[in-house]
Amino acid sequence: MNVLLGLTILMAAYLVGSIPCGLLLCKAKGLDIRRHGSGNIGATNVRRVLGKKWAVGCFLCDFAKGFVPVMLTVIFAGRSWADWLPVLVAVASIAGHVWPVYLRFQGGKGVATSAGALCPVAPLAIIVCIMAWGVVFGLTRYVSVASLTAAVVLPVTGLMLYTAGTGTVRGPDVVLLAVAGALVVYRHQSNIARLVRGEENRFSSKGGSN
């Protein structure tokens, strides 16, 4: 695989990641999700505006646009690219969701797309991350707190698995997990500020936190 092909794959991953699933789903109902709720295009705000069924659809679409490019890369990448290309494709997919070219680089927070992109390269770390998300969400009912916790647990788990020599996480994967976790935390700055002020919304049957 030559460099030009590698760059083409990365660009394709970015463009796929840039597809604004939440916006498109809401457009199908005649709504611009950016003008409702928190204004975010992710599944939590879609649930707030359109309900659970549409939120699940949004999450699955956002998950898939991270998972599919990375899984295809893992399957078809040449041996010389096997270590770093899936990692770079994952970063490109996540960056596409967070900074989509189609929406003037104003995208979502990257939780679902990150989960999808990381599954093919570090599935055990993602399982631990999902469990941590579920426990914290169950205790606090804050989607943002659960997501932030998962973002911290993710690289820590990856580093522990790598250090233990389990073979499930490689050196490049540790870097990816750290980057993905840091990006999720960065994208939750507004939520962190609201949490500090005591203004963050808890999840309820009628809606969710931002």
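That was protein one. Protein two is written in the same sequence-then-structure order:
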Amino acid sequence: MNFENIVKKLSRSLAIIFIFVMADSLYLSAKGFNWVDGRLILVNSAEASPINDANGQNDTTPNLFDMNPQYVLGDKNAPVTIYEFSSLGCSHCASFHLNTLPKLKKDYIDTGKVKLIFADFPIDAKSMKGAMLARCMPEDKYFDFLNLMFKKQLSWSLSFKTEKIFISYAELEGLDAAKAKACMENDDVAKEIMAIRQDGMEKLKIQGTPVFLIRGSQGEEMIHGAPDYESLQQIINKYLDVNK
């Protein structure tokens, strides 16, 4: 391959990347997001990004946040609630779902002590589309679909055909391609997701993912970053003891 052909091939590749980035930016802008100083933010809100500290730091917070969840993992009457502010494109969020959540589910969720609510906090356009698609899943498949998205995170996050990949995942769960595509274009669903994200940023000062709001009858606290399971247990047990 001579130098001229190499330059032409490189130019085509750069053009494709440019078009993809521009399309991504236009999509985000239409949904209310803007890029500022290299970071994705919701218009008129503070900046948000993945949290790099995976160890988890906790603090108390006033009782301001609430949401009417479409899906709940566990008994809806469980005494302790965990709100998980998470993005499907966040690697620490994936680690929590794939490594920590199964233990939490076995020890606390399946035993009726804790319920978990997934609070969408997308940090990029692909995560936003994935979150929108997940909300079209039947109740009994929602969290399974989230797990699938986290397991395949590297594949779809690096792809230029993310929407096509998402549709293939939806079809595995019994959702036809046309409906899956419509889900990712539903502005009402997008507004619901952005409203949750906005509330998290304004009321809880969340600036990245993951963040966990743990709430019992006597109080609540937040963990920034993905905690190890033992630390999470200590906090949960504290609120369970209050409820005895």
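The beta strands are 33-36, 39-42, 49-50, 57-60, 80-86, 114-120, 208-209, 211-216, 219-224. Keep this in mind for the problem set.
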